[in-house]
Design goal:
This protein is an alpha/beta fold and about 170 residues long. The chain contains seven helices and seven strands. The protein is globular.
Length: about 170
């Protein structure tokens, strides 16, 4: 009987601990934090460029960025940044100052404009290499499946060796 109580108690406590354990989340950083960390411990930077009014940005938050494999890949191989394209914050990057000029720039921050090379479509993701050079930017909703391939393509440096379509053929 004592053994039976012990097993029940163990199972109950096990259930309680794992029921309330927090699920791993993406370690989002400010842009400045990611750039500073990159100087001491080089990693690629993943930037989710979004706006407050972007419906598909919210869908990505709820579907793509909660996927366990996406979370693991981002936390392991990237510094992850959420950047509001309409931010009024001043940014300093590659010896340049970026601001939001308001009505003259359609309320977009110059950093978002530069990172997206003027292609202001949301959601968008941007990849910066370990030397703070732009690798690529991609606009549009990315499902967890698509995002997994994109993240792997960039983190494995396959983008230096082959077009994305070839990477997909090999890895699909």
């Amino acid at each position: 009987m004592t053994r039976y109580k012990f097993i029940l108690t163990f199972l109950f406590l096990h259930f309680i601990v794992f029921s309330f354990a927090q699920k791993e989340q993406i370690k989002w950083l400010d842009f400045e934090q990611a750039i500073a960390l990159q100087k001491t411990t080089p990693k690629k930077i993943f930037i989710d460029v979004c706006t407050d009014w972007c419906t598909w940005c919210v869908v990505m938050d709820r579907r793509t960025y909660v996927n366990e494999k996406i979370i693991q890949e981002l936390n392991q191989n990237y510094y992850s940044v959420k950047l509001n394209a309409e931010s009024t914050k001043e940014f300093f990057f590659q010896s340049k100052k970026f601001i939001n000029k308001g009505a003259t720039s359609n309320n977009m921050n110059e950093l978002a404009i530069a990172l997206l090379q003027g292609q202001m479509a949301f959601p968008a993701i941007v990849f910066i290499d370990e030397k703070s050079d732009l690798i690529s930017s991609i606009s549009g909703y990315q499902s967890p499946k698509n995002m997994k391939f994109i993240l792997n393509y960039i983190s494995s440096n396959s983008y230096k060796k082959m077009p994305y379509a070839n990477f997909l053929k090999i890895n699909n």
